Amino acid sequence: MKYKKILTLVLATSISSLMLSCGGTTNNNNNGDNTNIEYNPEEANKIDYSQYGLDEQFIKKYQDVSIGDVGDMIQSFPSPVEVSAIIQDMDVPYSNKYLFNPDLADNFETSFKKAFGLGVYCADLGYLNVYNKTGDVIQYLVTIRKLSEDLKIGQFFDFQSLKRIATNNNNLDSLLILSVQSYFNMDTYLRQNDRSNISALMVTGVWAESLYLACEVYKNKDNKRMKEHIASQKTIMDDLLAILIKFINNDPNYIKMVAGLKDLSIAFNDVKIEEVKGEDVTEIIDDVQVTTQGDHTVITVSDEQMANIIKAVEVFRNKLAETL
User: Fold this and answer.
1) For residues 249 and 251, what is the distance between their CA atoms, to the nearest angstrom?
2) Cα–Cα 20 to 30 A to 91, which of 2, 5, 189, 237?
3) Burial of 72 (0-12, 13-18, 19+ CB in 10 A)
4) pLDDT truncated to tens, each residue of the chain (324 aa)?
5) Is 64 strand, coil or helix?
6) β-sheet bridge partners, residue 276
7) Per-residue DSSP letters for 219-259?
8) Is-contact 127 213, C-beta < 8 A?
9) CB proximity list for 164: less than 8 A, separation 6 or greater
């Protein structure tokens, strides 16, 4: 299906372009709400992490990851928002109760909240696009525009074109493609202006909301592909922690986010992810040449583990929502 292929490609591209910002230029200052606040050991040593359920050993584990390593790590991420394509294949009913209320964006007072919220609404936009919810798409685009303007990156959204395309259900492919171009330009600007923490928050927002949407859909319809997608996020959490630790300093919002990820990771502890090596196999099936990749990933997760993961994801997402 053409739409499905473009959706998967576009969402993968958008998340990758946003994430690459963390590998850009950085500086060690905290002079204002929009500046980059890369990890500073001298400042971090003054923090009592125990009140957040963290310890110095845990922090040190991730602070030793270099910015260069993080950049390489990010480029290898699968797209968290590929969940939208999986939902489309599952043929499950639409539910607006899963989405974050766009009206709440009016209460976002800081750049931390606006950047994280922007990521959340972008993930919700992907979900809306799957169901061709034109009216709601417009509302979320309006919210995304407002937040991006508040963050001084609104110049990268051609809102009139986005709105025009969104009102035509036959052009949702074009809507996604134009959105990606906006995100790409925005990401470049953030990297060049030492504001990579803003992109890091946006990426975390996209990931957290996408995982939440995946879990809520899975609760209503068991699906092997969705189950494996959710379980596979175990490997993403360590990478997100390595990124967010770079900006932890003495900002309690970042510390709470890191603490939440640590708590969430406990639910994923028993998930087994194994990379299996093998030779590609090519065969003819119904006169069509089909190649099966030899190298593949085997994910093992029980129903009980899934139930624990879903519960933990709901707690994690709702705690983050409370900070907005």
Assistant:
1) 6
2) 237
3) exposed
4) 333 333 333 333 333 333 333 333 333 333 345 445 555 555 656 778 888 888 888 888 877 766 555 445 554 555 545 677 788 889 899 999 999 999 999 999 999 999 999 989 988 988 887 788 888 888 998 898 899 899 998 887 777 776 666 666 555 455 555 555 666 676 667 767 777 788 788 888 888 999 999 999 999 998 999 999 999 999 888 888 888 888 887 678 888 999 999 999 999 999 998 877 767 777 787 777 776 666 667 888 999 999 999 999 999 998 888 877
5) coil
6) 296
7) HHS--HHHHHHHHHTHHHHHHHHHHHHTT-TT-HHHHHHHH
8) yes
9) none
Contact 280, 291 (CB under 8 A): yes
**For residues 122 and 180, is the Cβ–Cβ distance under 8 A?**
no
Closest to 232 in 3D by CA, of 124, 83, 120: 83
Amino acid at 155: Q
Dihedral sign computed on CA atoms, order 148, 151, 153, 154: positive
Element (H, E) at 291: strand 288-292
Residues 309 and 264: beta-carbon distance below 8 Å: no
Closest CA to 23 of 63, 79, 74: 74
d(CA 184, CA 201): 16
